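User: These chains co-purify. Model them together.
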Amino acid sequence: MAFKSRFIAGISFAITIVFCTASLWAQADRRPNGKFNQQDKFRQLEEILPTPGAYRTASGAPGHAYWQQKVDYEISIALNDEKQTLSGSEKIRYTNNSPDNLKYLWLQLDGNIFRPDSAASRGRTASRFGRSTISFDRIPITSMQSLLAKEVFDGGFNITTCKDLQANTELKHTIVETMMRVDLPAPLATGETFEFQVDWNYEINNSKFIRGRAGCEFFEEDGNYIYEVAQWFPRLCAYTDTTGWQHKQFLGSGEFTLELGDYMVSITTPDDHVVASSGVLLNPGEVLTETQRERLKEAESTKKPMFIITPEEAKDNESSESEGTKTWIFKADQVRDFAWASSRKFIWDAMQHNVGEKPVMAMSYYPNEGEPLWSKYSTHSIIHTLDVYSRYTFDYPYPVAISVNGPVGGMEYPMICFNGPRPEKDGTYSARTKYGLISVIIHEVGHNYFPMIVNSDERQWTWMDEGLNTFLQYLAEQEWEENYPSRRGEPNDIVSYMRSGNQVPIMTNSESILQFGPNGYSKPATALNILRETILGRELFDFAFKEYAVRWKFKRPMPADFFRTMEDASGVDLDWFWRGWFYSTDHVDIAVTGVRHLNVSTGDPEIEKGIKKEQRDAEPETLSKQRNKELKKRADDFPELNDFYNEFDPLDVTNSDRKAYESFLESLDDEQKKLLQEKRNFYLIDFQNVGGLVMPIIFDAEFEDGSTKRFIVPAEIWTRDNEKVTRMIITEKPVSKIILDPQLETADVDLGNNQFPPAIVKSRFELFKMSKEKNQMQKSAADEEGVDDENDDDEEKKEEDE
Amino acid sequence: MIRFETILLLLIVLLSAISESADASHPFHVTRAEIDYNAKRKTFEVAICVWPEDLAKAVSKIEKRTVDVDAESEKSRDAMFKKYVAKSFRFTPSKLSEDEISKAADIRWIGSELKVKQGWLYFEVDASAAASRWTIENEMFFEFNDDQMNQIQVRNGKEWISKTLSAEVPSTGWTRE
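Assistant: Joint model of the two components:
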């Protein structure tokens, strides 16, 4: 229905709907004296961001005096397949590039989280011991096993040696939970290097009972293990210009940050094991067969992934018995960590791919239990990730990229990642498993860019790598195939989380995050997608995002560096966006609350007075007036009582009106006369910010003929009043409907107030129930016609598949 | 006194029995229920969004076999989902007198949608009981995930509340105005 028919032309009507759901929590920050009774949603962030300086600039780039430490490792590690233990020795070369003298060094001992007396174990709330203890009457045996295993298993590091290599003397070292302080014989000055040795050993966690980011998996059928080894050696903590020594203990959620450096790692395993690792294999002649080496050579020019170890060969290896050990030597430069995997069960496929000018060997390692899924999708997923991510950031700088299947569901390390999904035992798999595998590989390989190369600190800020990476994962997934079922990225998918209670802002330390997945992954990824599609546009966003990645490649950015670079490189003040999406728990809920239709005064008395007469005549007759009509009037009996005023109608057009109009027309120039002849419709549209988060107002005006016009109002419309605004639009055709956020691009949580005239929006439940009922009717109609039921089932299945 | 061998045996049994396998490094243990109170029909209309993987695990446990929810017929899987929902999701009206026995309201199953991205379960709950105060509990997947969070959003006309149910707070109150 058109507004015109509802509102009398020439008169303004305002309809205001009062929403009771206005955000009460927003009132906390309001000034009580009533001078400006709102929060300042556009307040600049400078006052809460760290002060820029020589290390980090106000534009978000590394400053002229930016520095970071360098730590190089030479490690020998031996895997005991009988006892599932590791014992190693490392030579650490620490270079102090900071302007400070260091009296001691701090190392990470992440494995100590597996000690029964670790802070993570002792500090775990009751609920995190397993809800099943309370919810379903009794403790299921599986939970009890896991709980008890945690009580007795000690996967912590045993440090057997810590010595100064130059002086060949023991170093005083103090273990504090998951960290170890090594006291230096003399303060380490700027530019100086210190070399020391640490020896250690530990028992690898069995992932069945003790979940972790690494672990081993036992296969009962063939008696073999797959080892995924990570966070396995004492690693230097980061020492930075922002926090000094990283001093947050490992509690389980906040992963880690480390220093970049070069690694030389010798891995000794049973001689029939195959090792996948960060870095380049330096001694293939000693550990690979001639056939494997030939196949690897062939893989440099293959057009599709090819086997280095075939499924059949891997199956044969399963029954092999090792006679001795082999040592695999790997070199990895400019990495912040190092991980590896080992098993005699591995199938191995590879395909070399050029990223920019540089060749990268993409490889996958998996047991026969991963087939046929892994050989079909893993290496392709790696290469696809490198192509897409490199386009949005920088060319992948490492020589290899590896995906391994084992006990870990999904975890990333430089050049190598662990991914969990497998098909059913009979080799079949659901679409969910297939897409789950592709997505997790894209995600974990994608972590090479954030945070392995752009070395952000996940111990502090989950979103800086999980959020940015999930955003790029979404872009990569959408380039895999049309309508790829991405779980995160689309604004509409985050609506229910944004509406939910029990939230913390994205800018929350990793250990304090509530609703980890939506907060650390989905919300920042979706916010960036909205920033790209709706706020900045793809060109501006992509330029700024790439600038951030390039600026901080192999460096250590902080949140402010991201916020500042995105503004610096786009030329757009986004402080309101960071404030709303990253620093608050506000959500988007913009309502269209009223529409007023205005016409331009023509000045023509015949038209204008005629309109006013119509309005007057349209006014309702009161009851008394109606009844009084029948009364006998004195003026009827004495007509001489009538005079000029009884005949005069102030809305009659007079000669002076006509003359005034003529002189008005004469005063107009041609342009103004033309404008007066064109019929334009002016609408004042009222919007209310119910959710608190300021955003652009995007709406369609639908005209009486069914056509529409899109209006995009920037978020800055809310600068003076962030609760209520009115926007004027001018149209040639009369408007019949206003539809807010027609393409669901802002994550608006309530579509019920997005239309004017208001429209009833059916709930998901109602829509589903209606579709079911319709299907039942169709079914019964089909029954009457004698159509086979099975066909209907097929039809439904097809709909689902689509 | 418990003998050392007994303790050792118990330990071996515990460590060798089947348990949960590792999950992704960061958990995504969340369900979201959109509940509309339909005053005209005196019914709670519920749509819950769940991860299909969690659902498969839950029904497998009840059925004591590995259930491939995608392979099951719609009828069969709905029967399993219904059973699980009845076990874990409860709407209980408050007692109007001391003698009354507190009993969860009946659930009427409507159906399910199983997509690659997510699954949706639909059911109605009879709200014809006279009590105005209700307790809503959702314990889905608490038996698997230590950090499971079940969001519920209850809408009554224009008014809505949003609560997060967790191990520590597995239920919430709701008053029919």
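Chain A has 24 helices and 31 strands.
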